Amino acid sequence: MLNKAPLCITIMLLLIPVTATSQEQARDNYETYCIQCHGIQGNGMGVNIRDMSVQPRDHTDAKAMSGRSDDELFKVIKEGGLSINKSVLMPPWGSTFTDNEIHDLVKYLRKLCKCKHGD
Amino acid sequence: MRYPHMIIALCALFIVSMSSAKIASAADGTEILKQRCASCHALKGPAAKTLAQLWQRKGPDLFYAGNKYNKTWVEAWLQNPKRIRPAGMFYRQHIKPGPKHDIVDKSTLKPHIILTKTEAKAVANALMKLKANSELTAKEKLVPGPSPIGEMMFDKIYGCMACHQIEPGYGGMSGPEVFTAAKRLQPAFMLSYIKNPQAWDPKIWMPNKHAPVDNIQQLVNYLIELSKEDFSDVK
Lengths: 119, 235
Prior knowledge:
The complex is a heterodimer.
Chain A: H1 5-15, H2 18-38, H3 62-65, H4 70-79, H5 99-113
Chain B: H1 4-37, H2 51-56, H3 71-79, E1 95-96, E2 103-104, H4 117-127, H5 134-137, H6 150-157, E3 165-167, E4 170-171, H7 181-184, H8 187-195, H9 197-200, H10 213-227
Antiparallel strand pairs in B: 1-2, 3-4
Helix pairs in contact in B: 1-4, 3-4, 6-10, 8-10
C-alpha cells in the first residue's frame, strides 16, 4: 500500500491541468506589467502612451507580430527593446519574471495576435 | 510649612501626569496608524510576494517609512494630501479604454484622509520609527552635485518618463510622479530603489534597468534638481 502512494500522487499531479494554470499566470503577469503601455486590450494603447516618443507594439496586430520569432519575443521581454534594436521604452523584465514566466508570456502573445512566426 | 506631604503629593502627581502625557503623545501616532491607516497601508512586512497580494494593496507599504520618507514632507502632506500616483496605487484597477488610448477612471480614485497638525506630527514621528530594510539604505550614499545629463538619462536613456510624470500632466501615469520625489523621499531610498526595485517590493511593476551606480547617482541628483523647480503655474 505504502509503495503505491508515490504512484498515486504522481498520477494526481499529472491530472492537474498544468496548461490552464500557466496560462492564467501569463495573463495575470500581462495585466499587471504589460498593459500599462500595451493597453488593457493589448492593442498598444496603454494609459502611459500619450507622451511617449515611440508607441508600444500592438500585440493584436497579427502582421507585425508574426514578423517576430518566439526567441525574439523572449529576448525583448527579458532584456528589453535595445536587445533587438528597438526602443529603450520597452524595459528589461528579467528581474521581474522567471524564464518560464517569459515563455508563458510569449505563448500568451501568440494568443493575443492569433498568429505565429512566419504567418 | 503646614502641608508638606500634600505639596510633595501634588508634585508627584504633576510629574506622573506629565510623563503620562508624554507617553500618550508618543503613542498617539502609532495608535492612529493602527486605527486609521492600517486598512490601506501595511505597517508590517514583508511586501507582497504574489500578484494576488499585490492587487490587494490600497496604499504604499509603510513598514519601511522611516527609511523612505522625509519627515517634514510627511507631516505637511498628511494635513494637505494631494495625489502622487495619477492612476492610483495599482493602476490596473483605475484605468479603462478611452477614445484614443486607455485613460484613468477618476471615479474610482478615492481621496486620502486628512489629519490635523497634531495628528500629522504624531503620525510622522511614528512612521520614522518604522525602519525595515535598513540594510538596503545603509549601502547607499548620495554624492550631491550637478547632474548635467540626468534628465537625458531619465527621459531617453532609461525611459523612466514612460511611467512617471516629470512635471504636472506630462509623462506616464502608472507610476508615482517624480517632480516631487526628492521632496518626499530620502536620497538613500531613491538610490536603493532605482538600483533594485524588487529588493523593496518583489512584485512591483517597475523594472530593474540595471543602471550603473554612477548613473543612478546622476538620476537622483536630477530628481533633486527637479524637485526645486516651481511647477505652480503648470496645470
